Automatic annotation (TrEMBL):
It comes from the Bacteria. Its EC number is 1.8.4.12. Pfam families: SelR. GO terms for biological process: protein repair; response to oxidative stress. This is peptide-methionine (R)-S-oxide reductase. One of its GO terms (molecular function) is peptide-methionine (R)-S-oxide reductase activity. Residues 1-19 form the signal peptide. Keywords: Oxidoreductase, Signal.
């Protein structure tokens, strides 16, 4: 069970606590008036929308925490981190294909990482929680939180899309 205590952390301490999974993401999304979308994403419209209750029935509690409440799974806890077969990673909330296995790499961070998403698969927005500025990555179709993108990845893009495995499913490429 994830603790919901409030901690005041900033900068490096917050990043370290979040990365180790010791502190869950505390800045949770507020729900917009429609009861379907997070308030900060209310300006964005998504093709797939559900009420909070519907999301809870469609997702496991851990998936719900990551996709709908911007939680972060513990590093090295996802089987998708060690998935090396050819195939496609899709959103666990709406099944939109997000990443090709051809762009996956081992970032040694404990989360599945990719150097580029599939075309028109993800959206981004600024995330200023914990007193730092990061770029949050979400599913373009349902708005589900996937992870963050950083500028310390490999060539050719130099980007590292650091994704929560709980936010995705994997479909192997047919042999």
């Amino acid at each position: 069970m994830v603790s919901r205590r409030i901690f005041m952390l900033t900068g490096t301490a917050a990043a370290a606590a979040l990365a180790t999974g010791l502190v869950p993401r505390l800045a949770r999304r507020a729900t917009a008036a429609d009861g379907k979308t997070p308030a900060k994403a209310a300006a964005e419209t998504f093709e797939v929308t559900h009420t909070d209750a519907e999301w809870r029935t469609r997702l496991t509690p851990a998936q719900y925490d990551v996709l709908r409440r911007e939680g972060t799974e513990r590093p090295y806890s996802s089987p998708l981190n060690d998935e090396h077969r050819a195939g496609t990673f899709a959103c666990a909330g709406c099944a939109l294909p997000l990443f090709s296995s051809r762009t996956k790499f081992d970032s040694h961070t404990g989360w599945p990482s990719f150097w580029i998403p599939l075309e028109h698969a993800v959206g981004t927005r600024s995330d200023t929680t914990f007193g730092m500025v990061r770029t949050e990555v979400h599913c373009r179709r349902c708005g589900g939180h996937l992870g963050h993108v950083f500028d310390d990845g490999p060539k050719p893009t130099g980007l590292r899309y650091c994704m929560n495995g709980l936010a995705m499913t994997f479909t192997p490429q047919p042999a």
